[in-house]
Amino acid sequence: MPFVPVETPKCPACGKSVYAAEERVAGGYKFHKTCFKCSMCNKALDSTNCAEHEKVLFCKNCHGRKYGPKGYGFGGGAGCLSMDTGSHLNREFVQPKIPPKAPDGEGCPRCGIYVYAAEQMLARGKGYHRRCFKCVQCNKTLDSTLHCDGPDKDIYCRGCYAPKFGTRGYGQLNGLMSDIKDCEWQSDLAPKTAAINVDQIQAPLGEGCPRCGGVVFAAEQVLSKGRPWHRKCFKCRDCTKTLDSIIACDGPDNDVYCKTCYGKKWGPHGYGFACGYGFLQTDGVSDDVSQRPFVCPDTTSIKAPEGEGCPRCGGAVFAAELQLSKGKMWHRQCFSCAKCHRPLDSVLACDGPDDNIYCKLCYAKLFGPKGVGYGHTPALVSTSYEYTPSSWGQLNRCGGQSEDGCPRCGYIVFAAESMKSKNSIWHKLCFYCSDCRKYLDSTNLNDGPDGNIYCRSCYGKNYGPKGVGYGIGAGTLTMA
Q: What is the C-alpha to C-alpha distance for residues 419 and 441, in angstroms, rounded to an integer?
């Protein structure tokens, strides 16, 4: 059914429609804001001083003059009333005069009255009154940016023009105008559209659209791997989904697919891919593909020169599978713990003194400090009795002795167990006070002048000030 605008109330003063944004209510009638004034003295009114009488507005003074009580002595002899009827105002409510109509073809196309320059709005070379420049269907006020000239020599807003004269069909302009109207809506003046056959103009072999072979012009061109396609033909080969540059995938058969169909047809399939997690789908796998034997990739197929390849297998390491550890290049598949074979990354990997890599747990078991009571609390547990030291001097350490080693035991200090003092680097197990053997950290460390380290108490006993009466007679120092 055609659009029928809602009936709006009429202003009793001027007889025109009153909309919600400009209405003023008095006596159950709706007036324009500009018409809401006294009919006698022309005073602007509001809800506190207006009076309505038979659809005519008055202020309270004029209403009293015209319809209030008159005469002397009214109200107990008080001469408070007057005989003024407002005749000197000489204002009667008069309907606005309608100007004469212009000759045919010279006035406003909507009302036929003369149009002067101060109120002229142009459309198709014709002058409209500003109040008449409205959509003929929904009565919406228009301007030069909103109006559309219809083929029936009238003006419309964009919302009414599109359903009446716009294009029809599903998918037109990405679905913005996709509903087919019935015969009552379909105008005889609307353009008739037909399906476009893109392969009518055939291109030379190998130069046209890969899907239909037609010539591709610039206005409808979509590129994929340097090949021009018609926009209409740029669809997935399997599901015919319309593609764009983000979701299009070029298949090895020189056709285009969406990401889902590409993954079903050409992506990896099967259970157990990626460390045993069966998260890949088997949809689209044919019988001959599903029964193929799984072949583990051989990283040693390309051998590298001696000392330049992967430390574990000796194969050449390429950039796509590179993992670094202390300047050595490993295959991603070989970058696992040498003891428990857990896959590692740059956060979990620990370089051992035997030029191999371990996870943190295996490194601690093999090369970390062991024993009960380490760190002021019984926090460490010996994993095997042969590594548990029975005394401080009998701990077997990896690596040889060095001049730059730990000052206490003389062995090389690795990064995982290093503790720093002012002048030296110590093993974490050797980082204790030289007198009381209390374990130290950065908060209670004191470097002695003899090159040893002490806790605060022992440092004060050995190298602190001594004597009685130090500090203004207070016996605060000891002779220990």
A: 8
Q: 170-184, pLDDT tens digit by residue?
A: 444 444 444 444 444
CA gap 351, 417 in Å, rounded: 12
pLDDT for 376-394, tens place per residue? 444 454 444 444 344 444 4
Closest CA to 325 of 356, 354, 353, 296: 356
Least confidently predicted of 78-92, 118-132, 274-288, 343-357:
274-288
User: Quick check: helix, strand or coil at residue 434?
Assistant: coil
Paired tokens of 72: 């002397």
Cβ density class 216-243: b for 16+ within 10 Å, e for less: beeebebebeebbbbbbbbbbbbeeeeb
CA distance 236 to 211: 11
Q: What is the per-residue burial (b if ≥16 Cβ within 10 Å, else e) of 341-371?
A: eeebeeebbbbbeeebbbbbebbbbbbbbbb
pLDDT of residue 235: 93
Burial (0-12, 13-18, 19+ Cβ within 10 Å), 179? exposed
**Residues in Cβ contact with 195 at an 8 Å cutoff, skipping those fewer than 6 apart:** none
Contact (CB, 8 A) for 261 and 237? yes
What is the model's pLDDT at position 444? 87
